[in-house]
Amino acid sequence: MAEPEWESLEQCLEKHLPPADLREVKRLLYGKETRKLDLPGRAFESAAEGDFELQGYAFEAAEEQLRGPRTVRVGLVQNRIPLPADAPVAKQVSALHRRIESIVEVAAMCGVNIICFQEAWTMPFAFCTREKLPWTEFAESAEDGPTTSFCQKSTYYMEGNLGHPVFQTPFGRIAVNICYGRHHPLNWLLYSVNGADIIFNPSATIGALSESMWPIEARNAAIANHCFTCAINRVGKEYFPHEFTSGDGKKAHKDFGYFYGSSYVAAPDSSRTPGLSRTRDGLLVAELNLNLCRQVNDVWNFKMTGRYDMYARELAEAVKPNYRPHIVKE
Amino acid sequence: MAEPEWESLEQCLEKHLPPADLREVKRLLYGKETRKLDLPGRAFESAAEGDFELQGYAFEAAEEQLRGPRTVRVGLVQNRIPLPADAPVAKQVSALHRRIESIVEVAAMCGVNIICFQEAWTMPFAFCTREKLPWTEFAESAEDGPTTSFCQKSTYYMEGNLGHPVFQTPFGRIAVNICYGRHHPLNWLLYSVNGADIIFNPSATIGALSESMWPIEARNAAIANHCFTCAINRVGKEYFPHEFTSGDGKKAHKDFGYFYGSSYVAAPDSSRTPGLSRTRDGLLVAELNLNLCRQVNDVWNFKMTGRYDMYARELAEAVKPNYRPHIVKE
Fold first, then answer.
1. pLDDT category of residue B161 using cuts at 50, 70 and 90
2. Would strands B282-289 and B71-78 be described as parallel, antiparallel, or unpaired?
């Protein structure tokens, strides 16, 4: 496996492929080309000062007679932890708030309507250690904790864990499929059945485990459900004070592995943005014309052709303890 | 869009990328590298004589204490129609039989246990014309038609269209998810729930429509369901005697578009083989160690972590005519 410092697939292809081949490779890998967004110069200056990457793309849709374009800008944020995992809790949290604040300010300059941070963004990804302390101290009230207060300055934040709720916002219907939830196609489907235009997937995942699945799962979900999906991963390596194992029969270690960033947005027409860097903090701005969802639906009709009544019946049977799989033997 | 003669993604990357970068790009795109199979020289000679491509790869699994490796070789066949679509029906069918026979002979030399041809392999892909004649004449008895007789010489053939049956064969449990069925994640899931180790997806699909979805859907299915999937597409352009439209508001035409081949096998560990050519007939031989399915299941546990009882309930609700989507408003 390559070293973490290998920057990104896109950078490598752009460096080595002749323009005509590059165009064709991108078409095969990423579908219809996304237009580069013309973001303000001061946003790029601030990103350079803050040492994070800034990229912007627009997904376009055909003109319609009865509806104007319904454009919304989403921002995906990926970042390292600025302080080591054994620094005092309050210092870690406030350093993260400051770091995110500088990125959110750039997102605001870019006209972002909805911003999504990585999973467990207010702390190191400490679940892998299977220890409680001091990680439980990172827990906050979702009503009035310091992170909620911080977010109320500029952003929009909701959560839910009952079924597959979709949130009607002024910028479209959104849903949040957290981390591991991306592995189950039915999570994406049920958010879509409830009307989601955009499904966010804040994640924390490492190279050895999942890097070749990362470009597939959220993208397949956008295709299968005629919606936009936003896949966000954190960046860097996080060292913990005590050794722990990963339940994989290997030696104990002090880090979970290398979080490879590579956040991206995928569209219902099977196109996608390039990924953010594997190594740097970054903000990905994507302008989505939500009309594309219905337009692609009108071409492919998966919601019409899916035999959901049959699936529901078969699945209800399959979860019964006495279910006998439908196996035909000679 | 590139011309049909652009050969393949793999060939382009191999031509231009330095070895270390190529290795990393392949890791990101295709996961853990598949070992090249050492196929017999006379198989390659026959393939060259017959002017079709031959590639072979093996997916490996870890050794287990209680089970030996369960290896099976599958063959995926992609091909052009050898005669034009307005040639006499019987001549077209027998030319296809002869073409496939030459490929099947090579598959036998390669020790293939299960072979899968492309969708509607005994005819041009005439459904797009929405005409009946002469295409209905290609229909045959599945019990004793000439194609069934032909297949009974060397191969194994079964079909079904009721629910999601899985066929127990001496070479593992297999299922067939035909063509458009690949777009619905629940089809793959339900075959897997019924125990499929390998799901074949014989398809017929064209570049403008689906080429950037092709590498995503079957691969996601292998990942999500801890099984192998085999995606097969036909090759070339097929011209029909009468003009027809594709229901896309565009002018009538005599061809459906360019079938881009690119058949591949995907594994549960998110690795995959390279694709066959976009332009040439071909045979892809893949040796699968079916033990990999349970091994990956033991790492990721999607079948254990999927909340299938909840999905079944939510889906059963969602198909009711009076279903109210779960939308949270401010």
1. low
2. antiparallel
Most confident of A48-52, A205-209, A254-258: A48-52
User: Do B266 and B219 meet the contact criterion of CB atoms below 8 Å apart?
Assistant: yes
Give the gap in angstroms from C-alpha A40 to the nearest C-alpha of chain B: 31
What is the per-residue pLDDT across A18-66, written as a single tens digit (0 to 9) for each?
Answer: 999 999 999 899 988 999 999 999 999 999 999 999 999 999 999 999 9
Cα–Cα distance, B106 to B71 (Å, whole number): 19
Closest-CA distance of chain B to residue A22, Å: 9
Residue B67: Cβ within 10 Å count? 11
Contact A183, B224 (CB under 8 A): yes
The SS3 call for residue A316 is: helix
Residue B266 burial (C-beta neighbours within 10 Å; 0-12, 13-18, 19+): buried
Residue A163 to residue B27, Cβ atoms within 8 A? no
Question: Where residue A209 falls among pLDDT bands split at 50, 70, 90?
Answer: confident
Residues 6+ apart with CB under 8 A from B96: B79, B81, B82, B121, B122, B123
At B62-94, the pLDDT tens digits run 999 999 999 999 999 999 999 999 999 999 999
Q: Give residue B178's pLDDT.
A: 87
Instruction: State mean pLDDT over A75-79.
Output: 96
CB–CB contact A183 B302 (8 Å): yes
Encode burial over A119-131: b for 16+ CB neighbours within 10 A, e otherwise. Answer: bbbbbbbbebbee
The residues facing A54 across adjacent strands are A283
Which SS3 state, helix, strand or coil, does residue B306 take? coil
B chain contacts of residue A194, beta-carbon cutoff 8 Å: 325-327
pTM for the model stands at 0.90
Other CB atoms within a 10 A radius of the CB of residue B250 amount to 8
State residue B181 phi and psi, 5-degree precision. -55, -20
Indicate the residue of A9, A169, A270 with minimum beta-carbon distance to B216: A270
Provide CB contacts within 8 A for A158, sequence distance 6+. Answer: A167, A176, B328
| Alpha-helical regions (H) of A50-199 | 89-109, 146-152, 185-193
- Interface contact B24-A12, CB threshold 8 A: yes
Query: What is the rounded CA–CA span in Å between residue A151 and residue A177?
Result: 20
- Six token digits for residue A43: 């946003």
Determine whether A311 is exposed, middle or buried from the number of CB atoms within 10 Å of its CB (0-12, 13-18, 19+).
Answer: buried
In chain A, how long is the greatest CA-to-CA distance?
Answer: 70
DSSP 8-state secondary structure symbol assigned to residue A79: -
Residue A199 structure tokens = 């499904």
The residue with tokens 């050895």 is A208
What are the two backbone dihedrals, phi and then psi, of residue B10, each rounded to the nearest 5 degrees? -60, -45
Residue of B nearest to A26 (CA): B212
User: ipTM value of the model?
Assistant: 0.88
Angle separating helix axes B9-16 and B19-30, nearest 10 degrees: 150
Q: What is the DSSP letter of B272?
A: B
Name the one residue in this structure whose structure tokens are 């990362």.
A214
Exposure of A241 by Cβ count < 10 A (0-12 exposed, 13-18 middle, 19+ buried)? Answer: exposed
Q: Predicted confidence band at A161 (pLDDT cuts at 50, 70, 90)?
A: low
Number of Cβ pairs closer than 8 Å across A and B?
A: 224
Contact status, residue A297 vs residue A268, Cβ threshold 8 Å: yes
Inter-residue contact A57 to A36 (CB < 8 Å): yes
Strand pairing category for A282-289 and A71-78: antiparallel
Lookup: tokens for A95: 């350093």
User: CB-based contacts of B41: which residues, under 8 Å, 6+ apart?
Assistant: none
Report yes or no: B254 and B240 within 8 Å, Cβ to Cβ. yes
